[in-house]
Amino acid sequence: MFDTILLLVAAFVAGALNAVAGGGSFLTLPALVLTGIPPVVANATGTVALLPGYLSGAWGFRHDTQAPPGLSMRALLGLSLLGGGLGAALLLVTPDVTFRRVVPWLLLLATALFAFGPQITQSLKGRAGNPLARGLSVLAVTIYGGYFNGGLGILLLALFGLLGQSDLHAMNGLKNRVSALLTVIAAGLYAWGGLVAWREATIMMGAALLGGFLGARGARRLPAMWLRRGIVATGLTMSALFFLQ
């Protein structure tokens, strides 16, 4: 019963976080590991469980979603499919021991990029104008998302800011749409490779769906600064816990 409650709460809050600004996997991954799921399977299962939340979040922001300057929506979604597939395939061949060592560093990297995102975006402004550079940037982030998913929303928001977007709601809508698309292809590969704990994923899906819908509706009522500080605090806490483990 405790495990079930833990997974439901983690999935609900993670769905809301992902709809608003990202960072939901900072909660689902450790929750699944705490219930005894091996790290690689926990990562894959958490990704599958959060898919409904991405879908509901994308629906909630459907009127705000816009492609970043210099990239068509078709090109962006095509790169997302390719990157998600490549990242998921890489996870299939990653041993648990290796993944456990890499996770805290990935969490810390994602948190740092989000925390210093505005400064990084400002310093690199104008340097991502080349269409090839833009495409490669999207591909790199979506490969990361297909492999780990933790902090994916944070990285996507930083990337869209770098590519010239400034409206947070438009960025959030696009983030959820890209996340949902690459997660669909990644989830299919995870399932094919036998990496999904379906009982736990099923428990979490409904909670993530509800959290994503409510998070998208409530995002406009929360100051952006509060969201940023809360996500950075969550990322640092989870990074520290995984380093200690």
Automatic annotation (TrEMBL):
Membrane-spanning parts: 31-55, 75-93, 105-124, 136-160, 180-198, 226-244
Keyword Cell membrane carried by entry: yes
Cellular compartments annotated: Cell membrane
Bilayer disposition of the protein: Multi-pass membrane protein
Keyword Transmembrane: yes
Keywords linked to the UniProt accession: Cell membrane, Membrane, Transmembrane, Transmembrane helix, Transport
Similarity comment: Belongs to the 4-toluene sulfonate uptake permease (TSUP) (TC 2.A.102) family.
Name of the featured protein: Probable membrane transporter protein
